[in-house]
Amino acid sequence: MSYPPQAPYQQYDPPSYGPPSGPPPKRGAGLAIASMVLGIIALLLSWIPIINNVAAVIAVVGLGLGIPALIRARRGTHNGTGMAITGLVTSVLAIVLVILTQMLFVKAIEEVEQSINEGLAEAEVAPVDPGAEEATADEATAQTPEVVPLGVPAQVGDYQVTLDAIELNANETVAGANEFNEPPTGQYVITQLTVTYVGADEGMPGFDLTAIFHGTDSRQYSDSECSALLPDDGIDAPTLNSGGSDTFQFCMDVPPAAIEGGQLSIEPTMSFDDERVFYAIG
């Protein structure tokens, strides 16, 4: 018995697999992030005058980055659609706010300048009121210090001070008081005071009070600048309890030409208030 011949075996190649199909992966969102950050910064600075000039530049840069970032995101090649939109919106708002703020700023400056010009114009044409001039003169007279006559006490700090006498040319008196006294650079002036302490604790009148001669040369000459020893020198005045009194002298070295027409004041040596009292010297 014979059998029919068998067909040869067919060989099958393994199936081949091609590359996977689908869209390519999206890239990063660097432009969108930069646009969003710049837009937010510009929006925050857009309210501040002068500085918002910088904000306008930042907003323009943010706008320039946001447009291509949005185009790339819409094409699907990059991420960051929302951030690109945020950058565009904030940049546009910042530019608008900068323009509005600058307009308001310029308008305010123009109004101030106009007000100043109107005020100057009114001042130039305003009539002079004689009554106002008299009132100003009266105020100046009222502010002129009152002069206390010789022998009349006046309150100076914690003391009742009376000017007993003033010697405008006391060179011989000073020379006779102590042989070591030096001649004056100008001319010695001596004041004799009687003081009564009215404070609560105790007082040292020779240190607590100062005599000042106001010369006609517009300069002041204090007893602290006079080192001559006097017959009844203020440095030797005793410490006084409340109600205690003493009489002593101060000296001042004044140029002779500045004495005639000058003024004398007594004031506390240490004081933060204007407690100066003027006394008549003639």
Characterise the protein shown here.
With 282 residues, the protein is α+β, with helices and mostly antiparallel strands. The protein has two domains: 93 residues, no CATH class; 131 residues, Sandwich (Immunoglobulin-like). 39% of the residues lie in helices and 20% in strands. The protein is built from six helices and eleven strands. Strands 1-11-10-6-7 form a five-stranded mixed beta sheet. Strands 2-3-4-9 form a four-stranded antiparallel beta sheet, with no helix packed on it. A two-stranded antiparallel sheet has the order 5-8. β6 and β7 form a beta hairpin. α1 packs parallel to α3. The longest helix is centred in the middle third of the chain and has 45 residues. Keywords: Membrane, Transmembrane, Transmembrane helix. Pfam families: DUF4190. InterPro entries: DUF4190.
Count every helix, treating DSSP H or I runs of 4 or more residues as helices: 6
Low-confidence stretches: 139-144
Question: What's the number of domains?
Answer: 2
Distance between the ends = 177 Å
Helix and strand sequence: HHHHEEEHEEHEEEEEE
Radius of gyration: 48 Å
Helix content: 25-40%
Q: Indicate the CATH class of the largest domain.
A: Mainly Beta
How many strands, which pairing sense, and closed or not: the largest β-sheet? 5 strands, mixed
Which strand order spans the largest sheet, edge to edge or round the barrel? 1-11-10-6-7
**Average pLDDT, to the nearest integer?**
82
What name does the CATH topology of the largest domain carry? Answer: Immunoglobulin-like
Instruction: Bin the strand percentage.
Output: 15-25%
Number of strands: 11
Decide which structural class fits the backbone: alpha+beta
Going by CATH, the architecture of the largest domain would be Sandwich
InterPro entries: DUF4190
Region (Disordered): 1-24
Domain DUF4190: 31-100
Biased composition (Low complexity): 1-15
